[in-house]
Specification:
The complex is a heterodimer of chains A (517) and B (450). Helix content of chain A is 61%, strand content 3%. By secondary structure, chain A is mainly alpha-helical. Among the domains of chain A are: 151 residues, no CATH class; 86 residues, 2-Layer Sandwich (Alpha-Beta Plaits), CATH 3.30.70.20. In chain A, α7 packs antiparallel against α8. The longest helix of chain A is centred in the middle third of the chain and has 31 residues. The termini of chain A are far apart. Chain B has 450 residues and is an alpha/beta fold. Chain B folds into 3 domains: 171 residues, FAD/NAD(P)-binding domain; 116 residues, FAD/NAD(P)-binding domain (3-Layer(bba) Sandwich); 132 residues, Enolase-like, domain 1. In chain B, a hairpin with a 4-residue loop joins β4 and β5. Chain B is globular and about 75 Å long. Chain B starts with a strand and ends with a helix. The relative contact order of chain B is 0.11. The chains are: A mainly alpha (517), B alpha/beta (450). Chains A and B meet through α8, α21, β2 and β4 of A and α7, β21, α8 and α12 of B.
Chain lengths: 517, 450
């Protein structure tokens, strides 16, 4: 047998894990298809899947010492875009298409009809947690949580000995299990609105929809607390945390999309494209989605206020003034406060200024002409277009379905408007950066290869430059896989105004080669 | 001005890229190994499946065209320095105004019986990797000869495919011409923990085959016969300068260059592994075949082509490596055995996979060097302490500034300081914290006192 197959060879523990996990999946599918379902079968299937992942992980890493475990990554069918990868991609993509567009095929009962199939399979768990039958979203949430917990365990084993990786992974597991799954489910059982506190606007693009806001408003003090917390997160807590720690506090410690990418998506992180053309596409796409989501949200809020759809006594002028204030603050930062960083980004500065001015102009015109829609576009239609193309197709079908082909952070890198906002702040107004260690880089390329965001880390490291990129989610894997100890994630207050200054380059001066400035 | 560079390793390519930063003159890079520059240090990671070949290329393929740097894959056979023309294997003639020789090293091979057998390999070039891939395809047992940095990389590569490896190391302790005994022993333990049959004080005597094709065993210098299918040789490298030996260019072990990296011929420069400094700077060797010296020399050559009259001065010695899972960094001078005026403090953890050693002058107490295993320290900080001859106690008080390990990771500086306090009956305590702010404060202080 060829030695290269050693990487593909599974040991007995791994095989046991695979049998258990796949057994759970088969049991779930058989039960869903046959309609023979009860809580015992459901718990058995869920237990088999969870234990499967755990046993498989133990089998994979039990005999390995602390260190980097990337042997054979580019030789294994599942992680080198070969047959298994495509098969997996098609299955996940198919599942997402059913989930978003054909939930009835998953057994979602229409109009108070009882569930069937896969959705009915999860009824016992749903009854147990919130006292009502499951929905397609409950099924999705359950499987999502099992994946993050199971593969999170695997990730911790893989990087054991690395405390940053361990803590970060425990954090995403905690936020998924608690904030995204258990708390909202249990609260729903007490008839409170569904609320995942960590799922912030603009990632949560329906936060300002009338149904959502009114849900909070009709849920007493608890609902009011949820609403205020949601607003505080967007406008206060998030900017403060991003200032101190960079966008990683959210993207690789808290966020659910990031959580899945970092755990179940970890075996695919090296598949992200590192080409400069991908970087260009990334910048265009992500800021277009951000602009789209801001315009859509403003339109929705405006028309909701105008048509008195919020159970609040608000006048459209409040929103118009609010948007104006935010716009002025943004322009002030860009032209005055942070003008120095933007001096190298003239095109960006002008483009953003024109965009902001246009939005302001149109919204004021809408207001004075007493239009019921902010941009003369039907906000509901805008909302549903956004939901379909961005919320469902981009973040779900492509975002997760394409993991085995394009890597685990496709959505986070090319589409997420939340990542776009945090990224802009990270680049221009945050203490976070990755520093490089003197002249130790050997240009091997491990850092770039394992960057899930497709950042060519090496191109900075080999020049001894700090890495300050808006897309960096601070997962810290580049620093972990570096064989020469070159990279470190840092937060520092002292040089925030010129943090990209190449502190650590080996300088060639007229007096010779030295490290001194 | 036509600039021609022979060799597309780190030295040649850095020269090319640096020249491009300084001017718009046409640049041609000739290499017989590969068209595109790749990172030689990453060869092992390709074999182990961490990366593909294309991931080891530090620049995208279109970079060269964009920057008007011509790449030619060919072998230079002759240099006519009077007419400034190169001849190549494919029959081409390439004229130059400035020539940079950056032909790198070649692996040493000694005349052991059986050394020409198909199953014998070294690991330096891209074609070596192709050979290793093919001859280890169905291999169960291997011998690796040579206890240096490439030797242990080959061992790690083979172990990643579960090939049984016997590792022959001539020295009494692993890499003991460089490492102090404690560190050597740590690495020996690490090597053995990966299932390697490590044989110290053992040399290769012969490679044995019955049919003159297939290796069945090797014999060591003590007469022991060990069965094997392949033999990896990693007993050092030599400047790759055969083609210049009969030319007008002065050579010794390498191509001889002055402090501005010029050869004896005025428009010919040499840089990287292939060159030998006539007058190396204090504490540095005449030939240093390592990655960063290639990079630094490439920059210096470019500056001198553009008449900056810059001396090559690599500063304080530093280096790094990785022995299986244990990272190694060195800054300054840490001799394998203490010299007369040197003192040392050494700390290691219970598991014996992390250690810190600091050497200092016994009389002046100024710090001389840092040896780190499984712990990362900041180059700039250690360098500044060494350059400024900082007192060991000052260093210890601020030692945490140098720590470059990740956030939340354990720090062991206090344990090292405890040892110093016990040994010298002192009461030193740490003053500074790890992190970027401390580093900047540290440098601002240095700059303000200058």
């Amino acid at each position: 047998m060829s030695t290269i197959n050693y990487y593909n060879k599974k040991n007995q523990t791994q095989l046991l894990g695979l049998v258990s996990g796949l057994g759970g999946l088969v049991l779930m599918l058989a039960s869903s298809l046959s309609g023979i379902a009860d809580s015992a079968i459901m718990w058995t299937a869920l237990a088999l899947m969870s234990f499967g992942i755990i046993i498989y992980s133990i089998g994979t890493y039990k005999d390995k010492l602390h260190g980097i475990h990337n042997d054979g990554v580019w030789y294994m069918s599942v992680s080198n875009r070969s047959l298994l990868a495509w098969l997996l991609g098609v299955i996940i993509t198919g599942f997402y298409i059913l989930l978003y567009f054909k939930p009835e095929l998953l057994g979602q009962g229409a109009d108070d009809m009882p569930n069937t199939g896969l959705v009915a399979f999860f009824d016992p768990l749903s009854m147990f947690l919130k006292g009502k039958p499951a929905s397609q979203w409950f099924v999705y949430g359950t499987l999502y949580t099992v994946a993050i917990i199971g593969f999170g365990f695997k990730f911790i084993l893989k990087y054991r000995g690395n405390r940053y990786q361990t803590l970060r992974t425990l954090s995403v597991m905690f936020f998924q299990l608690g904030f995204a799954f258990l708390i909202p489910s249990i609260m729903e059982g007490f008839n409170y609105p569904y609320y995942d506190a960590k799922n912030m606007w603009p990632l949560n693009y329906y936060f300002f929809n009338d149904r959502n806001i009114n849900g909070f408003l009709s849920a007493g003090n608890v609902g009011l607390f949820m609403l205020i917390l949601g607003l505080l997160l967007i406008f206060l807590i998030s900017p403060i945390l991003t200032y101190f720690y960079g966008k990683r506090w959210y993207c690789s410690w808290v966020c659910g999309c990031g959580g899945l990418a970092e755990t179940a998506g970890d075996p695919f992180r090296h598949l992200s494209s590192k080409s400069t053309s991908s970087w260009k596409i990334e910048r265009w796409l992500i800021y277009m989605v951000l602009a789209f989501s801001i315009i859509m949200t403003v339109a929705v809020v405006y028309s909701n206020i105008y048509n008195h759809r919020y159970e609040l006594n608000l006048q459209p002028i409040f929103l118009v003034l609010f948007v104006t204030v935010i716009a002025i603050i943004s322009l002030y930062f860009m032209w005055v406060k942070a003008g120095k960083y933007f001096s190298q980004h003239e095109l960006l500065k002008k483009g953003v200024t024109i965009a902001i001015s246009l939005i302001l102009a149109i919204i004021w015109i809408s207001y004075f002409t007493k239009s019921s829609n902010a941009f003369f576009i039907d906000s509901n239609q805008l909302n549903s277009i956004y939901g379909f193309y961005i919320g469902s197709i981009f973040s779900g079908v492509i975002g997760v379905g394409f993991y085995p082909i394009m890597g685990s952070r496709v959505w986070c890198r090319f589409g997420c408007p939340m990542a776009a906002i945090l990224g802009l702040q990270q680049k221009f107004f945050s203490r976070f950066r990755i520093t490089t260690n003197g002249g130790q880089c050997i240009s091997c390329g491990n850092c770039s290869n394992y960057c899930e965001m497709g950042i060519d880390v090496r191109s900075y490291a080999q020049r001894g430059e700090n890495i300050i990129r808006s897309s960096c989610v601070g997962c810290g894997i580049c620093a972990s896989v570096c064989p020469r100890g070159v990279l470190r994630l840092e937060t520092g207050k002292l040089d925030i105004t010129d943090k990209s200054k190449d502190m650590s380059v080996i300088k060639i001066t007229e007096s010779g080669v030295s490290l001194e400035q | 001005m036509q600039i021609v560079i022979i060799g597309n390793g780190i030295a040649g390519i850095t020269a090319a890229v640096s020249c491009r930063k300084l001017g718009n003159d046409p640049i041609t890079v000739i290499s017989s190994e590969s068209k595109y520059f790749y990172s030689r240090t990453a060869l092992m990671y390709i074999y182990m499946g961490h990366m593909r070949f294309e991931d080891t290329k530090p620049y995208q393929d279109n970079f060269w065209h964009q920057n008007n740097i011509e790449l030619i894959q060919d072998k230079v056979t002759e240099i006519d320095h009077q007419n400034s023309v190169l001849s190549t294997k494919s029959g081409g003639k390439i004229s130059y105004d400035k020539l940079v020789i950056a032909t790198g090293s070649k692996p040493n091979i000694f005349a052991w019986p059986g050394v020409d057998l198909q199953g014998v390999f070294s690991m330096y070039h891209l074609h070596d990797l192709e050979k290793i891939n093919s001859i280890t395809e169905n291999c169960k047992r291997a011998i690796v000869v040579g206890g240096g940095l490439i030797g242990i990389e080959i061992v790690e590569m083979l172990r990643s495919r579960n090939i049984e490896v016997t590792f022959l190391v001539r020295e009494k302790n692993f890499w003991d011409i460089v490492l102090p005994k404690e560190e050597s022993e740590m690495i020996e333990k690490e090597i053995r923990s990966h299932g390697v049959d490590l044989r110290l004080s053992t040399e290769l005597a012969s490679i044995n085959s019955d049919d003159g094709k297939k290796i069945h065993s090797i014999t060591t210098n003590s007469g022991e016969t060990i069965p094997t299918e392949v033999v990896g040789i990693a007993v050092g490298v030599t400047p790759n300068i055969d083609m210049f030996k009969n030319s007008a260019i002065d050579v010794n072990r390498g191509i001889l260059v002055d402090s501005q990296l010029r050869t004896n011929i005025s428009n010919v420069y040499a840089c990287g592994d292939c060159c030998e400094l006539r007058n190396p700077s204090n504490g540095r060797r005449a030939i240093e075949p390592i990655w960063y010296t290639g990079r630094l020399m490439g920059e210096v050559v470019a500056k001198n082509i553009y008449n900056h009259e810059l001396d090559y001065n690599p500063g304080v010695w530093f280096n790094s490596a990785k022995f299986f899972n244990i990272e190694y960094q060195i800054y300054g001078t840490v001799n394998p055995k203490l010299e007369e005026n040197e003192s040392t403090i050494f700390w290691r953890n219970k598991e014996k996979n992390k250690s810190i050693r600091i050497n200092f002058d016994s009389n002046s107490k100024s710090v001389l060097g840092f040896n780190l295993f499984g712990i990362r320290y900041r180059h700039e900080v250690c360098n500044a302490w060494i350059v400024n001859k900082t007192h060991i106690e000052d260093v210890l008080q601020n030692l945490k500034i140098a720590n470059f390990d990740g956030e939340f990771s354990s720090q062991f500086e206090n344990e090292l300081i405890d040892q110093y306090n016990k040994l010298y009956h002192k009461n030193i305590a740490t003053k500074a914290k790890r992190g970027h702010d401390s580093v900047l404060e540290f440098f601002n202080k240095i700059l303000s006192t200058k």
